[in-house]
Design brief:
The complex is a heterodimer of chains A (438) and B (64). Chain A has 438 residues and is of the alpha+beta class. Chain A contains 14 helices and 15 strands. Chain B is mainly alpha-helical and 64 residues long. Helices cover 30% and strands 0% of the residues of chain B. The chains are: A alpha+beta (438), B mainly alpha (64).
Chain lengths: 438, 64
């Protein structure tokens, strides 16, 4: 059920907050076979549910999230509740305050029932966590859910929760959204507070919602940030300019992904959008520069940790890699950001939204470290992040939503990228695409 | 994320390759190009919330 549907049931007294939370906790305990959860927050969730029921009875309604169960990725600080970041380093860490996002969801009436599993330190895309278990994809448990927000993606995809938070440094919201068949938004850099969120790479980290539908993500953004994100549904897409990249984004992608994304584009055109092909900047170069920023920023956090046994081998080696980037090259990568941003911003004179696949492939099998795409065999991680990473470096908002599935029934993600602070319009367009796919 | 590397040596080679790809990009940089600034700071976004100490809360070091 969506946030809106649950909210209606609560207002109609068809179910109480306590009953909803009890049902949710029970489902998490018995049906989460995907290793999505690190910490269940039973006590606080039940207590908050009682409070929310009392408030509704007294006529105090906090809005759409009043009494709604949600989960936070386990790198968002939760006061008095362990926040592990999926790492041995933080296994016993109990924050003394809430992250701003956690605080804002509480103020909106949401009830956090769980902290979700993730790729260790949010530094990877498989969510195969060596310390807290490998998260499985509810759509097909032989496949990865994507990451690093894999637990959040799996919980929502399994229908166990309508909403969970994620963080996105190189695609970590949009990748699990694509692989699990849900909706995820990476907002504009800085639009959602990072306060109280364990960083991975300071200048690339974004916090955002992961939900079962676009409207739920819009409602969540209303709770997470200032502004109105849930605009009325568009009667037509007339006047909306959609750009379809001529270069980069449709090169080396699974033909079934290509078909599903192009069907979504055709549907937007049918609804009145002006669709045009457009040349995008050199995204390979932007991806390269983004890595030159990400690697040293992440390594700077863990420089004094010298015991490799405290890390998964993949994360340990990434941290060592970051130490090999000289300072002047890191600074130059940040300087290039200015120019690449100017290049990319020029797109918004011609179009409103760039429509691309989120990932060039559907969810890979757990054991697949390489994937065959056309004539090319490519590392799974590189393929998975290829179409999303640059947008973290550029800072633009990007929405991933399902746009169909392959013959095997695996979901395909559509990525809609917009100008800075265009989240309300992206979400509005996403709703139109979603409605046509329903 | 970079590729999954099995050994330190392979990881080092991957960084060398990354730096090799990066090197020609700096030809675009003239001295007046400064690092990009963020669109909006957390402090702006948090306007109106209670002031709280930052410090170790944002560091990877767990608070004691």
């Amino acid at each position: 059920m969506t946030v809106r549907e649950l909210a209606q049931q609560l207002r109609a007294r068809k179910i109480s907050c306590v009953e909803l939370i009890n049902d949710t906790l029970s489902a998490l305990k018995t049906r989460d076979t995907f290793r999505s959860v690190i910490t269940l927050m039973e006590g606080s969730a039940r207590a908050e549910a009682e409070e929310r029921d009392k408030e509704l009875a007294a006529g105090r309604d906090r809005g759409p999230f009043h009494g709604i169960p949600i989960a936070h990725k386990d790198l968002l600080y939760t006061r008095g509740v362990p926040t592990t970041a999926g790492s041995l380093l933080f296994r016993d860490f109990v924050p003394t305050y809430d992250a701003t996002v956690v605080e804002r969801f509480k103020a909106a009436g949401a009830i956090c029932v769980a902290k979700t599993n993730l790729h260790e330190l949010a530094y990877g895309i498989t969510s195969r966590n060596p310390h807290f278990g490998a998260v499985l994809n509810p759509r097909d448990t032989s496949r990865i859910p994507g990451g690093s927000s894999g637990g959040s993606g799996a919980l929502v995809a399994a229908g166990l929760l309508p909403m969970a938070t994620g963080s996105d440094t190189g695609g970590s919201i949009r990748i699990p959204a694509s692989y699990c068949g849900i909706t995820g938004l990476k907002p504009t850099y800085g639009r959602v507070s990072r306060y109280g969120v364990l960083p991975l790479a300071f200048s690339l980290d974004h916090i955002g919602p992961m939900g079962s539908c676009v409207e739920d993500c819009a409602l969540a953004m209303n709770a997470m940030a200032d502004g109105e994100f849930n605009l009325p549904a568009l009667p037509t897409l007339r006047g909306v300019r959609i750009g379809v990249p001529k270069n980069f984004y449709f090169e080396r992608i699974d033909p079934e992904v290509n078909s599903a994304v192009m069907r979504a584009v055709a549907e937007m055109e049918r609804q009145g959008a002006a669709v045009s092909e457009i040349q995008v900047p050199d995204m390979d170069a932007i991806n390269t520069a983004a890595l030159m920023v990400q690697l040293p920023e992440a390594s700077s956090l863990y420089e004094r940790h010298t015991d490799a046994s405290q890390f998964g081998s993949d994360v340990w080696l990434l941290i060592q890699q970051g130490k090999l980037i000289p300072a002047h090259e890191y600074v130059n990568a940040q300087r290039l950001r200015t120019l690449f941003r100017q290049d990319f911003d020029a797109l918004w004179e011609k179009i409103d939204v760039l429509a691309t696949p989120t990932t060039p492939i559907v969810a890979p099998r757990v054991e697949e470290t390489t994937v065959q795409i056309g004539a090319v065999r490519e590392n799974t991680r590189m393929a998975t992040t290829r179409l999303v990473r640059a947008i973290n470096y550029l800072g633009n908002p990007a929405l991933s939503l399902p746009c169909g599935s392959t013959a095997a029934g695996l979901p395909v993600g559509l990525q809609l990228i917009g100008a800075p602070f265009s989240e309300p319009q992206l979400l509005q367009l996403g709703r139109a695409v979603e409605a046509s796919a329903a | 994320m970079p590729e999954e590397h099995k050994t330190q040596q392979e990881a080092e080679r991957a960084v060398e390759e990354l730096r090799r790809r990066f090197a020609p990009l700096i030809q675009r940089l003239s001295p007046e190009v400064e690092p990009a600034v963020v669109f909006r700071t957390d402090d702006v976004n948090n306007a109106g919330t209670e002031p709280r100490p930052r410090g170790s809360g944002l560091s990877p070091e767990p608070e004691k």
